[in-house]
Amino acid sequence: METLAQRAALLRESLDKSKQVTDAVVSILGSFDSRLSALDSAMRPIQVFASPFLPASYTTSVIIIVWSRPDNVALSVQVRTHAVRTAHENIDRTLRSADVILTQFDRTREAEREIQKGPHENLQGFLDAVDRLRSIERFFSSNRSYRSSDGVLNHVNALLSKALVKMEDEFQKQLSQRSEARASALESSLKNLGVEKLSKEEVQRMPWEILESKIGNWIHFMRIAVKLLFAGERQLCDQVFECSQSLRDKCFAAITKNSLATLLSFGEAIAMSKRSPEKLFVLLDMYEIMCELQIEIDTIFVGEACSQMRDSALSLTKCLAQTAQKTFSDFEEAVEKDATKNIHTDGTVHPLTSYVINYVKFLFDYQSTLKQLFQEFKREDGTGSELASVTMSIMQALQNNLDAKAKQYKDPALMHIFLMNNIHYIVKSVRRSEAKDLLGDDWIQRHRRIVQQNANQYRRIAWSKVLQCLSGQGLTSSGGSGQIGSDGGNSSGASRAAVKERFRSFNMLFEEIYQKQCGWSVPDTELRESLRLAVAEILLPAYRSFLKRFGTAY
């Protein structure tokens, strides 16, 4: 560029001198115009000086006057007046063109200085310089006849490329600063809500009572973060970078990455922690909120830049589902293998029974979530859903465990009281819950029969000896004296002593059973009344019959 400028300056000086010479020649020719016609034969060719810088069409005619001898014999170059004028006009055009070109060179140097500075200090000046370079590029592109056009265009295009790189660098810097500021603001918002940055090890070492509370908070935080905070940031990025989808996604990902990772990390720590039955419900709560938010997450975290974040959220949902399913299996196994030895001496409902039933009843509060969890489908045999199968398995495991616990009772009658109480509690609870529709009437009727069978067994075992005291067998008198009325109106032949002993044995056994069963429990009022009536149905008629038959002998 400096070399070209020097050459242009020399050209300007040469052209000025040529103009002076031309003016002088015009004056001379004006005075000798009448004499020029005689010198046509002596005219020599006009010598053309072509500028190495200007287009070939712009030529300067140089008039050369040669004096062949000092005795005023002059040989001159005949130039017609119109030729001289044409040369003058060419010189003017050349000067004007050179002035325009030099102006473009000056503009190029000014723009280059601004480009070298970069956009950070003076963005508007930088952009103006880019506009000037584009104008210069258009000028030389439309005047390709200039011999230096290609070189100038190459230089201008190189400056424009450099300007683009500097603009991209500055933009990336500004974008990074903005993303960092918005990310910090988002993290502060979550912190103000109560979100804590906890490592997975810290989460897994927490006492369950504290952890359960934090899980409830986490569910609340996830809903607010996705529906309000992340959605708001997405809307803001879409407005600021409306012209570019990739920039919108990239900026949004940079802003929300750490905040989302903090929330998901807590969920992952819970999903990977040691499984236990009491964690099932919070796992279902967490799985439920992730399923609820999944569509919104896919919508908000759209684009390639957010793909890893979408995958992380989906991975947590699947991990929670797997952990919940395994917890179900663990619970069923734990119920069947519960080795609690401290059974109640009164045969009442065992704590395991009430725990399992309450557990199952709570499960039905999550019925829609469980259906999604198990991906409910109809079995080939049409017996019901996966949830029904799991529920039945848990109930069967409970019954197996109760059967094992019942064997710890030394009194067979109390053993049946225990089974009767517990199975009745199960049936009654199922009938009053949504499990009724899932398990079906057949299941309920089958277990009601089990309750009745245990009641009958209790009645038979507990009262069989008492009923034997009220039978007439063995109450015959060898002497035949002493007439005791009977239903047939004839004497039974029973001795007074034998009858008295029977009454004494009856009273003694009845009191013994009474004292023993006063410590037994049938907590359900309806079942207790039903059992009392069942005992009365066999005991009172036998007592009345015995009293009527042998009462006079006593």
TrEMBL record:
UniProt-recorded Gene Ontology molecular function terms: phosphatidylinositol-4,5-bisphosphate binding
Segments forming domain Exocyst complex subunit Exo70 C-terminal: 217-551
Gene3D superfamilies recorded: Exocyst complex component Exo70 (1.20.1280.170)
Domain of life: Eukaryota
Pfam families (UniProt xref): Exo70_C, Exo70_N
UniProt keywords, alphabetically: Exocytosis, Protein transport, Transport
Record InterPro entries: Cullin_repeat-like_dom_sf (IPR016159), Exo70 (IPR004140), Exo70_C (IPR046364)
Listed GO biological process terms: exocytosis; protein transport
GO cellular component: exocyst
Keyword Transport appears in the UniProt entry: yes
Sequence similarity: Belongs to the EXO70 family.
Role of this protein: Component of the exocyst complex.
Name of protein: Exocyst subunit Exo70 family protein
Species, as recorded: Eleusine coracana subsp. coracana
Lineage of source species: Eukaryota, Viridiplantae, Streptophyta, Embryophyta, Tracheophyta
